[in-house]
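Bug #77: duplicate submission created two jobs. Keeping one. Sequence:
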Amino acid sequence: MSEFTRPLNAWAGRSEHAQTCRQVSALIVEKKLLIVDDDPLMTDSLGFLLQQEGYEVVVAATGAEAIESARSCTPDLVLLDVGLPDLNGVEVCRRLRAFWHGPVIVLTARRQEADKVIGLDAGADDYVTKPFSSSELLARIRAGLRRAQHIGSGPAALGEIIVGDLHINRDSRTVTMEGQPVHLSARELDLLILLAERVGMALPRRYLFDSIWGPHFFGDERALDVYIRALRKKIEPDPDRPVYILTVRGVGYRLACPAAV
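Kept job's structure:
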């Protein structure tokens, strides 16, 4: 059973749904997190935990409240439950991405990879499967906020992604490594951008393949490995010992910052 199935003692007795933009005071406010969940037991438990970690917390009980809160409160990160009473969490994520580009962590009870891929397709940055521990969730939040520092959060333009000595400009579709231009094919660049937009996160093979080739492509999925090898030859100091594009066994690939490997 998840430790988030009941409120912590300090919050016991609360039964009302949290109101949009309800502020939970913190001893040291570092970042503002938006929790989107219609279960008051979950939001109270999460709110107390995050308060203890020094975060400022805003709570929304519906998808509509979440969108309104994201516009008015400008959170640094969103924790988004999939099962909401009005809008599906995936649809909420799609609508958020129309005006806000901070990290989104989807909270889901669904274990199938297809459900996780749908969330990533909608613009989520990460997912946590219920039941989860507080340590796992806090680690995912810290990682999401770190990634946001690399690629920028809030209502930002496409612009440039910098990962170590690798610079990717999405506006001009150019890449440099240690200041030298790297010539990539259109598909190689699309794949690199996809990895870079979620730097540090392990992306499933199926998600990468569907995003680049489309879900209706029936060719050899090993084409993904061919493009990964081509990218490594062009950006890695030593393609046989990659430090940027790493294989995550049983999952897929992730783009890493060498200093953080």
